[in-house]
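Known limitations

Structure tokens in this collection are predictions and should be treated as such. Users comparing against experimental data should check residue numbering before alignment. To illustrate the layout, the record for Holliday junction branch migration complex subunit RuvA is reproduced below. The input appears on top and the generated tokens appear beneath it.
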Amino acid sequence: MYDYIIGQVKRVTHEYIVIEQQHIGWCIYTPNPFVFQVKDELQQVYIHMHVREDAHLLFGFKSLDQRELFRKLIQVSGIGPKGALAILAGGNPAHVISAIESEDESLLVKFPGVGKKTARQMILDLKGKLGNLSIQHEVVIPSKEDELPLFGVNPNQHLLDEAFLALSALGYSDKELLKIKPNLEKNENLSTTEGYMKEALQLLLTSK
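Generated tokens:
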């Protein structure tokens, strides 16, 4: 029904963004809301509309290929929209495609809600069917060199807290997040919520 929406991003939360278009605020759930910024410039978001008995939900993506991979993932038994968002949240779906093509279950089971059965189903359903997707790595916004911790206190703690809220919403457990928290707190190169999100996701996928 909808292909994309062009409007101004008015609000960014740990689960969704709000885009205003023709005086209507559209609530759009995204893999990583913090890749969007609240600003006056018009931004384009590719849309997938998910219809349930109790709700009509909009899911948004930066690129067509992200949306198409999302649509393929939710066709796999055991993966719903929330699980597909968690898989896409790292900003590097190319790793997911590579894992499916190489039948690397050990990587796939690291995503929230993906067990061995679901990982195997992903491979059976999607292997050989993702070659037309040309998803590129997203670039992490560079940190500000002049932001340094004062007296051992992380001045970006609120950004880390926002990132953890978003990761919790994607399905990661408190135990998993506490395990990687020290590494994130001492990383002085991170100064955006998006950066914390991406670094956290990399740690989560390599720490198990």
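For this record: Residues 125 and 196 are 32 Å apart (CA to CA). The chain has eight helices and five strands. Please report discrepancies through the issue tracker.
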